Amino acid sequence: MERYESKFVVDWKNKKVVFAESGKEFVDVLLSFLTLPLGTIVQLLGKESSLGCFDELYKSVESLDASHFQTKACKNMLLRPLSAAGNLYKDLVVRIDDTNHRNVWFQMCRVGSILLLRWTKSDGGAKDDGAFVRGGMSYATADNLQVVPADTGNLLFLLRDMGIEDVTLLEEKTLELGLEEVISSISCIDNLHKSMEKNMSGYFKSDECRAMVLSPKLPPFFSCSDHFLMTDELLRFQDAVACCSSCIRNCSSFGISEVECSHGRTKLHAVNPKVPTITTETGDSYTKDPGKFLVTNELGVAPFSLINALSELKKKDHSVSELATREFTFTQPEYNTNLLT
User: What PANTHER family does its record include (predicted)?
Assistant: First the structure.
């Protein structure tokens, strides 16, 4: 398992961490949390994330039969979602998400067979910079995940914020961090987001990285057609190779990044994995139409049937005379509140 050493200032009397001082590496690992999809976070925490009703929602989607989804990819997209920042994870000293985001697979039809071709996305950014923040600088991370540039003013801020008066009680220690220690800090993720917005806006390596952390978008094709959650989506992948489609079909290698021929270029377009037919259009739904589902107060989801409904009524221990049917229309703020309670 990957481990990373960092310098910590600890209050030995009260046995608590005051702050950690590090370069870009440790801050980048923390910021990767802000770009992870909720489905990935729930999975990493063993479906015991304490993130409102998301644990129950994840478990119920996991239990749904594949026949309820439009394609085989749909269920996997929900349970193992990609991150829009996934291409940057390779630069992390401790990787939170082990999904390979750099390879894009294309399918081309030969007569009587299918040829799978791999396209590796290119890297970008200065080599001295980190995945998200600028390199060549020191940063301080408090125990509650507030992050600030390492300077004298912020040192005093951190000491006062932690209620430290006697600096003789503080000592420096070098500690190793791994995935388990980083994940244990997830309860303070709100402080991390606020401090990056307030204190670290000018320290991102690019405006694109700043937006990726503070206002993350979904990967291509992950949003739905109704846009109820008003989520933005990255532009779908499209590129070109210096090779005609005929020569690509005759390619014996699975990687086409370096394939060339003199006949022309071929455009590469990603297609929507949620749709059974080949299309480059975004949107559509994960489940088949017409689909009808039973959603419990805890956000458990199951195919609707009278038997499933009766089973839920038994769990609630209500008499029939206490029950009534009502029709509700949820606004987006109400929907968000239900998810987090």
Answer: OS01G0153900 PROTEIN, OS04G0594700 PROTEIN
**Tokens 């390596």 sit at which residue?**
205
- Give the integer Cα–Cα distance in Å for 197 and 147: 10
For the chain, 341 residues long, the average pLDDT of each consecutive 10-residue run is: 83 90 92 90 81 88 95 94 87 78 54 46 60 93 93 93 91 87 81 93 92 92 80 78 69 55 75 89 89 90 93 87 87 72 64
Q: If you write DSSP's letter for every residue of 185-211 in order, what string do you get? A: TGGGHHHHHHHHHHH-GGGBSSHHHHH
Instruction: Report which of 88, 90, 66, 92 is spatially closest to residue 79, judged by C-alpha positions.
Output: 66
Distance of CA 325 to the CA centre of its chain: 37
C-alpha 149/C-alpha 142 separation (Å) is 11
Separation of alpha carbons 256 and 248, rounded Å: 8
Predicted structure pTM score = 0.80
